Amino acid sequence: MTDTIFALASGAGRAAIAVLRLTGSDTALIVAALAGRLPPPRHASLRPLRDAAGEVLDEALVLWFPGPRSYTGEDSAELHLHGGPAVLAGVSAALLGAGARPAEPGEFTRRAFLNGRMDLTAAEGVADLIEAETAAQRRQALRQAGGALAERYAGWAERLTRLLAHQEAAIEFAEDGLPNDLEDRMRAGAAALAAEIGAHLDDGGRGERLRDGVWVAIVGAPNAGKSSLLNALAGREAAIVSAQAGTTRDVVEVRLELAGVPVWLADTAGLREASDAIEAEGVRRARRRAAEADLVVAVFAADQAPDAATLELLAPGVLVLANKMDLAAAPAELGGVAPLPVSARTGAGLDALRAALEAAVAARAGHSGEAPLTRPRHRAALREAAGWLAEAGAAPLPELGAEALRAALRALGRLTGRVGVEEVLDVVFGDFCIGK
Ligand SMILES: Nc1nc2c(ncn2[C@@H]2O[C@H](COP(=O)(O)OP(=O)(O)OP(=O)(O)O)[C@@H](O)[C@H]2O)c(=O)[nH]1
Ligand SMILES: [K+]
Ligand SMILES: [Mg+2]
To answer: What region holds the TrmE-type G domain (predicted)?
Structure first.
């Protein structure tokens, strides 16, 4: 027996149609109480919905999904109502009166997980799909919701279980004094699995970046034209531009979408020995932002000698710009680095700049063949599993090897939700919206 829960599954506010979703043991009874009788499974039927006093609240499309072939695995239903607030209030009150209760955030998907309809990574994929704002985010979330990570991790858990079974057999045979090579095979298997997990972890954070956004920091000398370039890329006057050196102090951030990836583009204070405390704090923030950024864009003014502070930030992977090309015949020599020539004033080179940014962002985030891990939670659990596998491979006693394999299995179990899940459930489902 489960509580029967309901929630608005469509957006809040006045709309043409509002979808109320129900799931739980008494779904059939409750729907029949409002709609008179249950429609045939998975067929939409138009029905008057009545309250306990018999007043018609709405003419609604009623859908009935008997478990276990439903999203949650339990008896479920959808009521497609007219979207006005009074209709919604009336039907909600009738559902409450009939014994249903409002759902907690994520409770539908939580039940789907508990009923074995999906693992935790797939449930997280559903949450990401609801949050997805760009096409690349949508593709990544859809793959994960479809079980791309679940399958891989379940495969690893299966291999681990087999290694553990062999290790336990090795322990038994040793007690019987029989020679066996089971331990050697365990060591080889643990090393191979640890290497595979290591390769998966060593993805440069592509999946997490696509989910959270790529951080790009524009840095350079005062008056190089950083704010002008930010505004040009954002298509609006987000940052103040002036001829006065030291105009920008705080970090000014705009959100862009480049190559289907969300990007946080930050304009920063010009790098120099600041004359006052506020500007000095701005320069400190600029340096910190550059250090934390996934991509640094270093801007030089083409009509000036390159400044030492910006030159110091040049490293492989930094995108180097020579701005104000309208004022110079050729960009200054930057020690072998070929800057991208642009002019924020005339717009020359801005298309090439955008293309270079897209390429750099695409190289740092998103799809590269296999489905990437997408959350720090995944990274932590996989690191732990790989660590225990290394320990298993090096264990001086077979019993310790078995113990390490069990610990690795538990770490994978927390990742997929198969073992020791209670403590992670709230973390995973807490950030869901109600109705999913
Ligand atoms: N001729 C020319 N002037 C430019 C160009 N880009 C910016 N400027 C001018 O250069 C001056 C400084 O521009 P900003 O965008 O404020 O420069 P900044 O790097 O943000 O400066 P700080 O915030 O003070 O570090 C302004 O007067 C701009 O109009 C350009 O491509 N060509
Ligand atoms: K300026
Ligand atoms: Mg500025």
So the answer is: 213-362
Residue 345 marked as a ligand binder: yes
Using CB distances shorter than 6 Å, the residues near ligand 1 are 220, 222-228, 241-243, 245-248, 269-270, 323-324, 326-327, 343-345
The pair phi, psi for residue 141, each rounded to 5°, is: -65, -40
Res. 429: pLDDT tops 80: no
3-state secondary structure of 322: strand
CATH architecture classification, 121-204+372-430: Up-down Bundle (1.20)
Domain ranges of the chain: 5-103, 121-204+372-430, 214-364
Q: How far is CA 257 from the centre of its chain?
A: 16
The CATH code for residues 214-364 is 3.40.50.300
Tokens of 102: 């409002």
Alpha-carbon span 343 to 336, nearest angstrom: 21
Return contacts of 331-340, CB within 8 angstroms, 24+ apart: 331/300, 331/302, 332/300, 332/302, 332/304, 332/305, 332/306, 333/306, 334/300, 334/306, 335/311, 339/300
In angstroms, the first-to-last Cα distance of the chain is 20
pLDDT tens-digit map of 146-184: 999 999 999 998 888 888 888 887 887 777 766 668 888
Tens digit of each residue's pLDDT (9 = 90 or more) over 177-219: 666 688 888 999 999 999 999 999 998 899 999 999 999 999 9
Closest CA to 289 of 308, 264, 314, 311: 264
Residue type, 268: T
Q: What is the CA radius of gyration of the chain?
A: 29
Which ligand 1 atom lies nearest to the CA of residue 221?
Answer: 25
Class in CATH terms, 5-103? alpha beta
Q: What is the pLDDT of residue 335?
A: 79
Per the CB < 8 A criterion, the answer to whether 2 and 67 are in contact is: no
Q: How far is residue 36's CA from residue 32's CA, in Å, rounded to a whole number?
A: 5
- ipTM field: 0.99
pLDDT tens-digit map of 222-244: 999 999 999 999 999 999 999 99
- 335 CA → ligand 3 middle, Å: 25
